[in-house]
Automatic annotation (TrEMBL), chain A:
GO molecular function terms listed in the Swiss-Prot or TrEMBL record: ATP binding; ATP hydrolysis activity; transmembrane transporter activity
Gene that specifies this protein: potG
InterPro entries hit by this protein: AAA+_ATPase (IPR003593), ABC_SmlMolc_Importer (IPR050093), ABC_transporter-like_ATP-bd (IPR003439), ABC_transporter-like_CS (IPR017871), Mo/tungstate-bd_C_term_dom (IPR008995), P-loop_NTPase (IPR027417), Transp-assoc_OB_typ2 (IPR013611)
Name of the protein this chain belongs to: ABC transporter nucleotide bindingATPase protein
Tagged with keyword RNA-binding: no
Automatic annotation (TrEMBL), chain B:
Protein name: ABC spermidineputrescine transporter inner membrane subunit
Keywords recorded for this protein, A-Z: Cell membrane, Membrane, Transmembrane, Transmembrane helix, Transport
Keyword Metal-binding recorded: no
Annotated source species: Profundibacterium mesophilum KAUST100406-0324
Main localisation: membrane
Pfam families xref list: BPD_transp_1
Gene Ontology cellular-component terms listed: plasma membrane
Automatic annotation (TrEMBL), chain C:
GO cellular component term, pick one: plasma membrane
Protein family (similarity comment): Belongs to the binding-protein-dependent transport system permease family. CysTW subfamily.
Protein name per UniProt: ABC spermidineputrescine transporter inner membrane subunit
Subcellular location: Cell membrane
Topology class, membrane: Multi-pass membrane protein
Major location (coarse): membrane
CDD domains listed in its UniProt record: TM_PBP2 (cd06261)
Transmembrane segments: 7-27, 62-82, 94-120, 126-149, 225-246
Domain of life: Bacteria
Source lineage: Bacteria, Pseudomonadati, Pseudomonadota, Alphaproteobacteria, Rhodobacterales
Native species: Profundibacterium mesophilum KAUST100406-0324
Any one biological process term the GO annotation gives: transmembrane transport
Domain ABC transmembrane type-1: 58-246
Length: 374, 289, 264
């Protein structure tokens, strides 16, 4: 895949001076090429996420920023200082480890105060700082608790307090929520966001959960195979995926075959649309030309409902009731592969049963073209 | 994770330097010297440094040495087989039949007897098997026999009994560990697929426990073939083993080169058996076909 | 009772059979170690402290075992760390050499060391025994500490560095405390092995015999054997008490590790 990142988004967003600047970063593990030319800039106070499937290099990238891995080639600047040869303990970064790495032989207070230097104030002053840090993460009064007796969520809070008490320029978080159950994870997502705004420290989060990245981040770098495939804000990322792969990784997307004749495109099951005005993702050199459209961009019309939108016909094959939403698998007339359509459940709206004929509304504006050749 | 990181490689080398140097100087060096010695010869008090195969020829030709070597091998094999066979059901019992909370207690009970001096334990077997020993006293007292049994002490059988006892935990623990690692759903799957208890044991449990059984066999075999104390205390003249002869050559007959040749031969036997065991394990415990 | 359970109990009886004789003959008022018994006495225990050679051999064994435990645990720490770190050229060969005594009959280690010491003209002392014992204890300490290092979450040491500590400080404040159970286990095991080891001590000891070497000499004199039985009884009681205490400590630690709440 050629380097086709969005150059506008590579720079730190307007109004923020860059705190991390990484250019031309490469990293090999033996024969394995883990990072293949990463350029990025993270702004001060930004909540930045590295998103990608396992093995895409996102954790390696985080560990190079922390200093646990040396860069093979390239330059890393944090806070205006070149980090070449600077060991992890001298970097203005602190990390929340995936396993949280809470020292089992120390109590909560000792864990949180672990990084405070002997020179940094008296015992009493340190105790005050530890108390404040614990209060910030909602664990006030936990100083004497044994590390072994903490729940997963509490361990994570201790890990956060332990890193934030040192007031780093950058807080690095390595899949910090992956060990928590769904409810707790959602709660911690909101809390991390609140905490980040409160302390104003740059957060760099590694995650494989696209939903998490979209919910929490100011900007997200989507990574595949050691490269950044797209770097953008959550909305841009969802609405305008730069490639088929990004589109498949972020949210759900239907792909329909396309035949081009002159200025007109024939989208299988949907019909003809003029070529002009359709948005195209960058060519990715693989697969036939296809039209991508997200499930919520379709609507199933009531019988007899009028609409100014384009319409198509299909047959419901399968329904999945999600409570607030219903997901339909619909075979569009003239096609074989079903498309997924999501509809919000509303009063008075019946859930169609399989076999029902349905009229479907859609818009040309919500189509993105993916192609090998264009 | 962090392979090829020059800093960690440098630290690794620095760390291993001390123990490796120690092993080189005190193990590799002396072993090399023994091999060297085995090609020299002893001429009364002087050491003849011209290379010769005479020691090996003598060790292999002389019936006494040959017999000791073969007897050591036979005794070690017998001890290994009996120890492992006797230990397996116990390891199986503790792993599969004992409630998890009580497993530690069982292992504890099994290891306690071995926290007493090895010498004293071997000597106690002499007491048990002796002319006026426990066995004879009990059998005489019960009127089962009229005169003390003499065939139970000072022969290879008494050596095997004593060593089987001495190395019991060394066999039980590796087998137990191997059995503990077996995912019990595999056994349930086999039963679910229609195998009986016996065939499940034969087709699932035993193959999965085989690495532990092999480890147990080697852990018992190696020290037993070189054991010195037991044959001296309970073996009598017919139960002596190669270690006793090595000691005699070095400390009594002052023929270090011949002793060295015997030691090298013993080492070769151990190595050969360990290699065969390793190959057999790879052959039989891996996926077949 | 199932057959397997019955077998296990019979096997336990077999394991305990010789040990059960220890106290019987230690309190038996007769010099001959055989049945029938002659009545109860405490005189073998009273004779123990009045046997200077025995007291001296106990003292020798204790300092040899102590030094061996310390030396092999320190060397084992280095080897185990190197063995669990990044692979480098020659590492596996070196680790193999360090672990080699596990697959060598002890008599071979003993004669090999003896030959070299004699060839170099070095005197046989307690230190030569320590050298030999450290060699055979090193694989055990390396294995025990290796599994301790492997059980250590590498993120804990990284967290120490990340929070601003240098390597040495991380080792002292994070690694060492977390390895402590492994270190204690290594010290105990190597101490026990050295204390009980006979053949290497027999070959390499100088004028000060270790306890097993002294006992070996006594076993030839029937009249000394009841005293040996008394000593064996005391050693058995001490080791049973010690391992029971160690087991209780281990269970307490395990209970604390999995406990719901250690209290605020």
């Amino acid at each position: 895949m050629p380097d086709q990142t969005n150059t506008d988004a590579e720079a730190a967003p307007a109004g923020r001076c860059p705190i991390i600047e990484l250019s031309g970063a490469h990293k090999h593990f033996g024969d394995y090429h883990a990072l293949r030319g990463i350029d990025l800039s993270v702004g001060a106070g930004e909540f930045f996420s590295l998103l990608g499937p396992s093995g895409c290099g996102k954790t390696t990238l985080l560990r190079t920023i922390a200093g646990f891995e040396a860069l093979g080639a390239g330059r890393l600047v944090i806070g205006g200082r070149d980090m070449a040869g600077v060991p992890p303990n001298r970097r203005p970064t602190n990390m929340v480890f995936q396993s949280y790495a809470i020292f089992p032989h120390l109590d909560v207070g000792q864990n949180v105060g672990f990084g405070l230097r002997r020179s940094e104030g008296s015992r009493a002053q340190k105790a005050v700082r530890i108390g404040e840090a614990l209060e910030m993460v909602g664990l006030a009064g936990y100083e004497r608790r044994g590390a072994q007796a903490l729940s997963g969520g509490q361990r994570q809070r201790v890990a956060l307090a332990r890193a934030l008490i040192l007031r780093p320029d950058v807080l690095l978080l390595d899949e910090p929520l992956s060990a928590l159950d769904k409810k707790l994870r959602e709660q911690m997502q909101a809390e991390l966001r609140r905490l980040q705004r409160q302390v104003g420290i740059t957060f760099v989060l590694v995650t494989h959960d696209q939903e998490e990245a979209l919910i929490m981040s100011d900007r997200v770098a989507v990574m595949f195979e050691g490269r950044i495939a797209q770097l953008a804000g959550p909305q841009e990322l969802y609405r305008h995926p730069a490639s088929r792969r990004v589109a498949e990784f972020i949210g759900m997307m239907n792909f329909l075959p396309v035949i081009a004749t002159g200025d007109t495109l024939e989208i299988a099951g949907l019909g003809r649309v003029p070529r002009a005005g359709l948005r195209s993702a960058a060519p990715d050199g693989q697969g036939p030309p296809e039209a991508g459209i997200r499930p919520e961009m379709f609507s199933i019309l009531y019988p007899g409902e009028q609409t100014g939108r384009r319409t198509a016909q299909g047959t419901v094959r399968e329904t999945a009731f999600y409570g607030d939403m219903t997901y339909y698998e619909v075979i569009l007339d003239g096609t074989e592969r079903p498309v997924t359509i999501s509809m919000k459940n509303m009063p008075g709206r019946m859930i169609l049963s399989p076999g029902t004929q349905a009229r479907i509304a859609w818009d040309a504006e919500s189509v993105t073209l993916f192609s090998a050749a264009w | 994770m962090a392979q090829a990181d020059p800093g960690s490689v440098r630290r690794g080398r620095a760390l291993i330097a001390a123990p490796a140097l120690y092993a080189l100087l005190l193990l590799a060096g002396p072993l090399g010297t023994i091999v060297l010695f085995s090609f020299w010869s002893q001429d009364f008090l002087a050491l003849d440094r011209s290379p010769t195969l005479g020691n090996y020829a003598e060790a292999l030709r002389e019936p006494l040495y040959r017999e000791l070597m073969l007897r050591s091998l036979a005794i070690a094999m017998a001890v290994t087989v009996t120890t492992v066979l006797l230990a397996f059901p116990v390891a199986y019992f503790v792993s599969f039949k004992v409630a998890p909370a009580r497993k530690a207690l069982w292992l504890f009970l099994i290891t306690i007897p071995f926290w007493t001096s090895y010498l004293v334990r071997v000597f106690l077997w002499k007491v048990i098997l002796g002319f006026n020993g426990v066995v004879n006293a009990s059998l005489l007292g019960a009127g089962i026999i009229d005169a003390p049994l003499t065939f139970i002490l000072y022969n290879p059988v008494s050596v095997v009994i004593t060593l089987t006892h001495a190395f019991a935990p060394f066999a039980i623990l590796p087998i137990y560990v191997a059995l503990e690692r077996i995912d019990h759903s595999l056994i349930e799957a086999s039963r679910d697929l229609g195998e009986s208890r016996a065939s499940t044991f034969r087709r699932v449990t035993l193959p999965l426990a085989l690495p532990g059984v092999m480890a147990a066999a080697l852990i018992v075999f190696i020290p037993v073939i070189g054991d010195y104390v037991t044959p001296r205390l309970v073996g009598g003249p017919s139960g002596l083993m190669i270690a006793n002869m090595i000691q005699t050559q070095f400390l009594k007959l002052n023929n270090a080169p011949l002793g060295a040749a015997l030691a090298v031969l013993a080492m070769l036997i151990v190595t050969a058996i360990a290699l065969v065991a390793g190959l057999a394990l790879r052959r039989f415990s891996g996926p077949r076909g | 009772m199932s057959g397997l359970r019955l077998y296990a109990l019979v096997y336990l009886a077999f394991l305990y059979a010789p040990i059960a004789l220890l106290p019987i003959f230690a309190f038996n008022d007769g010099t001959v170690i055989a049945f029938p018994l002659d009545g109860f006495t405490l005189r073998w225990f009273r004779e123990l402290p009045q046997t200077p050679a025995l007291v001296a051999s106990v003292r020798t064994s204790l300092w040899i075992a102590g030094s061996t435990a310390l030396l092999s645990t320190v060397l084992g720490l280095c080897a185990a760390r190197a063995g669990t770190m990044a692979r480098f050229g020659g590492r596996d060969a070196m680790m193999g050499l360090i672990m080699l005594p596990l697959v060598l009959p002890e008599i071979i280690v003993a004669v090999a060391l003896l030959v070299v010491l004699l060839a170099l003209g070095l005197p046989l002392t307690g230190w030569t025994v320590i050298a030999g014992h450290t060699l055979i204890c090193l694989p055990f300490s390396t294995a025990i500490l290796g599994s301790a290092f492997r059980a250590l979450d590498p993120a804990l040491e990284e967290a120490g560095i990340d929070l601003g500590l240098g390597r040495a400080a991380v080792f002292l404040r994070v690694t060492l405390p977390l390895l402590m159970p492994g270190i204690i286990a290594s010290l105990l095991i190597t101490f026990t092995i050295s204390l009980d080891e006979f053949i290497i001590a027999f070959f390499l000891t100088g004028t000060e015999p270790t306890l097993p070497v002294y006992l070996w000499g006594q076993l030839r004199f029937p009249q000394k054997i009841p005293v040996v039985m008394a000593l064996g009884t005391i050693l058995l009681v001490i080791s049973v008490v010690l391992i029971t205490l160690a087991e209780i400590a281990r269970r307490r630690a395990a209970a604390r590790a999995t406990g719901i709440d250690s209290g605020a």
